[in-house]
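re: that complex we talked abt at group meeting.

here r the seqs, copy pasted straight from the sheet so there may be weird spacing, ignore it
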Amino acid sequence: MALTETMKPRERVMNALAGKPVDRTPVANPTNVATVELMDMMDAPFPDACRDPELAARLAATGYTELGFDSVMPYFTIIQESSALGCDMQWEEKDNWPTVRMYNPIWKGPDDIRIPPGFLEHPDNIAITRAIEILKRELGDEVAVIGKTMGPWTLAYHVFGVEPFLLMTVDDPDMTMRCLDRLKEISVLFGEAQIAAGADALTFPDHATGDLVSGDYYRRFLLEIHREMVERLSVPLILHICGNTLDRMDYIAQTGMAAFHFDSKNDPQAAMDTVAGRIGLVGNINNPETLYARGPEEVRQEVFRCLDAGVGMVAPECAVPLATKLENLIEIPRAVKAWHESHDE
Amino acid sequence: MPVAHEGLEQEIGYVTKPFEIEHIRGLFEGTDPLMHELAYNLIVGNHHDVDRLTKDALDRDFSANNILDDGLIAGMAIVGIKFRDNIIFVPEVLVAARAMKAGMKHLEPILSASGIEPLGTVIMGTVKGDLHDIGKNLCIMMLRGAGFAVHDLGVDTSADKFIDAVMEHDAQVLGMSALLTTTMPNMGKTITAFEEAGLRDQVKIMCGGAPLNQEFADDMGADGYGKDAMDCVALAKSLLGLEEVMKAVPAKT
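got the structure back, here u go
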């Protein structure tokens, strides 16, 4: 049976984030779907598209105009506010993501943490807030505009370096909490700026991944902070943590976040069973093995697996590989529609 | 037979595979209680105690090689198993590695002077365009903990740097790491560079990183893929035909 869409993409996404009924499962991109092909198409290459609001908006819009997703996301990386804090950056070229040189940290402890004057006016933050304003103006009635603000755990990796920060968690848990408490103010500040610019929702990446730390770490260090973020940021939040997270999904489900964007290392059905309706799930099409290396048929099968499990919003598991073929990304919304055509009465 | 050290015995209790229990118990059988104390403090990351106990052991005329084998490496073997089995995570491995370093600070000068050869020489680095190094660093800790000499090229490593390092150190194994899907292909480019330089047959190449898998490693022409730090050590031993070597000799770097 042909699928009849009765909602605009924005309404579809916002309803899904609110746990309300939708006409079909939305397809979102809480992290990033920019690819080299799209950069070439729009003449908006990295790293310029990360630092220029016009280019960022132009490239982000393709998530809707070229791929048919229900949301757009102009923050392609995880480093914009870290650049504004003064981290040592490697901006790279079109075919690679910009990265913080974490081996060269800028701070050592909580007393070093200072939000620089004019933080929100830093060009790398302005690139995001102005891009959101442009997208809101041009596409805001139609599509959900999602922003992104880094959580304190991710910021800690950037400003302290991964190893020094993880050692701090063992050596001095109280100091670690003081650091996280100060860093979370940066998350709130940048998040509020994006909300003021028009963001309908915010992705909240905070990489306390099972590949690095235990589920108990998440409970001890982040659960309360994430609850506080829900209280303080006035739009739906989509928590994003890469890697194995099944052992902490029960805690994540207690945060009050609207949704959790989860990795393909976690089985969708097991994830659904764990969260048991307490939080929406977004995900989890595999990037390196499926979207990057396979074809549309394999993409379709993964989309079906998510939908069969009841995942509420379909998305790539994380920022897609920049060399991903467009036909694979376009297949995601196609597959969602095909699944609904064969399942909806 | 259980060891008398209560804490160490509890740590051994985390090992559940029969052949590993046998191996681990074998490491401690008949060794001095001081080595048990040393291994335990390494496992739980008490670097100040490892520092002190290593000095004590040297003062009591334990050989540097015995301290390394019976205390530090034996302890690190349990750390590796606990990490692989998700009983501990990266922070706990980092503090154990720091403790290992505290002990090695006293042993390395003695071992170097004695001329004992390491298990093998490994070059490690994160590939060009990639600045992520925690996984690579864990592998290095485990490799050193198992007795390999490891030269760390850091992050953002070009093919030329890998080639130069293999030549300079006469390394038998090269390990490459990548976290980003954008930089994974640089592993293949590095392997091609070794082929073009006529050096591919002189070194075994292994690779790893979160987005990789065996298939990708095979397609690139790597000799092996390791899914984690423990796997990396097993792979390095396998590539050098050392699977049966259960007790290692010191790393020099």
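couple things i noticed - Residues 294 and 328 of chain A are 8 Å apart (CA to CA). Chain A has a mean pLDDT of 96.
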